[in-house]
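Colleagues,

For the teaching module next term, I've prepared a clean inverse folding example: a structure given as tokens, and then the sequence designed for it. I'd like students to try predicting residues themselves before seeing the answer, so please don't circulate the second half yet.
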């Protein structure tokens, strides 16, 4: 089998089954890519063959509720405590002690929690778009970090995080409108960042006011596919998985803010291991280019490297070369002990 072939594998324990894609030599240093909402292991399709080709054992799991991993029917099954345990179990099943972890979107708080609560299982951690010490502390915490110059409290009480309040208050409607046509939903969502939107309130800040993600509509409008982010073939894979599993699991990640905050409360906050953060210049929800959203991270990381990428939220898909270059540069320079070594022959 070619080193660059993506392998489809399963890790099974009595509590959970994780499907994952894998690439690279089985004995290579382990790097785990953790996706967010509403994605799949497929979201790392541009990273896995690159890092597998460099000699890493590069894997990307379908997170719980997604793809071919286990799906659950209670909101509490999607709290971070359970998700983090899935990742620890996965590495155990692979026979490894530690990994380099890379996260995005809801994968980011999972990776941050691994670094904070289980540093002994991490060589280093990297995250795209979502900085440390933000959403893993709960929704109330990030609302306190809202840029009130852009989002006056009287008009935007929850700032750009208004859509998260909508899940809490109208979960059934949010889920139903996504499930009405998953293909149209993901076709609308997966699009590149627009520099013209800089300095304007994010669309997500008005979700409650307009009565839902798509306003009065009961399904996503039919928008052109953004070929710079996703191909038609890949879009169909996302849509098929969401048709099969539904959005209850993915949306339930937003229903555990209080439980997630309680789980980490009182735990040590500093990260002493190497950390990479890739901010997205045109991600206006996780806006770190001009706001103070990343300041809590900067105050708590001993070895932080940051890059600002000219990208929207779906960075790994929109700007894969920039992401891969930044990751490789950081790994070679700041985590050199895990850089794959060429085989030696007598």
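(Answer key — instructors only)
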């Amino acid at each position: 089998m070619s080193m660059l072939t993506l392998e489809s594998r399963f890790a099974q324990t009595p509590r959970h089954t994780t499907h994952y894609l894998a690439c690279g030599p089985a004995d290579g240093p382990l790097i785990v890519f953790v996706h967010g909402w509403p994605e799949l292991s497929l979201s790392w399709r541009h990273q896995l063959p690159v890092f597998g080709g460099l000699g890493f054992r590069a894997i990307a799991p379908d997170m719980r509720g997604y793809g071919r991993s286990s799906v659950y029917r209670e909101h509490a099954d999607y709290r971070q405590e359970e998700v983090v345990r899935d990742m620890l179990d996965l590495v155990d099943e692979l026979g490894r002690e530690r990994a380099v972890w890379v996260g995005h979107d809801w994968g980011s708080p999972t990776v941050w929690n691994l670094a904070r609560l289980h540093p002994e299982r991490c060589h280093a951690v990297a995250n795209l778009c979502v900085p440390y010490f933000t959403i893993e502390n709960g929704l109330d915490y990030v609302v306190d970090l809202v840029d009130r110059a852009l989002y006056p409290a009287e008009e935007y009480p929850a700032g750009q995080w208004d859509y998260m309040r909508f899940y809490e208050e109208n979960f059934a409607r949010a889920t139903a409108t996504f499930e009405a046509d998953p293909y149209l939903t993901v076709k609308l969502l997966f699009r590149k960042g627009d520099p013209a939107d800089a300095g304007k309130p994010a669309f997500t800040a008005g979700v409650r006011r307009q009565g839902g993600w798509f306003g009065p509509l009961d399904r996503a409008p039919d928008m052109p596919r953004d070929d710079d982010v996703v191909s038609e073939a890949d879009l169909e894979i996302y849509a098929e998985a969401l048709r099969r599993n539904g959005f209850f699991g993915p949306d339930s990640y937003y229903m555990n803010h209080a439980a997630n905050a309680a789980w980490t409360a009182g735990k040590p906050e500093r990260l002493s291991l190497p950390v990479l953060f890739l901010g997205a210049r045109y991600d206006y929800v996780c806006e770190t280019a001009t706001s103070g959203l990343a300041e809590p991270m900067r105050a708590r990381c001993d070895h932080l490297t940051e890059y600002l990428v000219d990208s929207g939220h779906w960075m790994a898909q929109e700007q894969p070369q920039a992401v891969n270059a930044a990751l490789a540069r950081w790994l070679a320079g700041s985590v050199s002990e895990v850089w794959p070594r060429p085989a030696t022959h007598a």
